[in-house]
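Sequence dictates fold. Next comes a concrete instance:
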Amino acid sequence: MDIDARGPRFGAAVTTVVLAVVLVTGSVWLLAWQTFAFLLGAAGGVSRSPYGRLFRAAVRPRLGPPTGFEAPEPPRFAQAVGLLFAGLGLVGYTLGPGWLGLAATGAALAAAFLNAAFGYCLGCELYLLVRRVTVPAE
């Protein structure tokens, strides 16, 4: 079943704010929260992530009907990519080197910002590229 395309973009906006705060404050706990949010999104799909639930409960009822839908697999894959980068960021912030924490968190922030501001999902595009390379044409 396709999902409302506004949901992942809302999640990306929240993620952008969270990761920006992590970079400014160096908060390992906030990065751990974001890593957990990515984990839930990767495991259960974006609609089961905390930000997806918030969108469905508090934001979507205040918006008009959806005008665009998308397949759930690309955003779910993007959550897995976010999980990888946030996990690397956690390792860098907690075990070192510190530059790894900054770089991985910054990369995740850049990807989230592109999705939130411009609707360009890097993880989704990576998913489509992987599919083109690995799935034989019919």
Notes: The chain has a mean pLDDT of 94. The radius of gyration is 15 Å. Helices lie at 6-25, 28-44, 50-59, 73-94, 98-118, 122-134. The chain has one domain: 3-134.
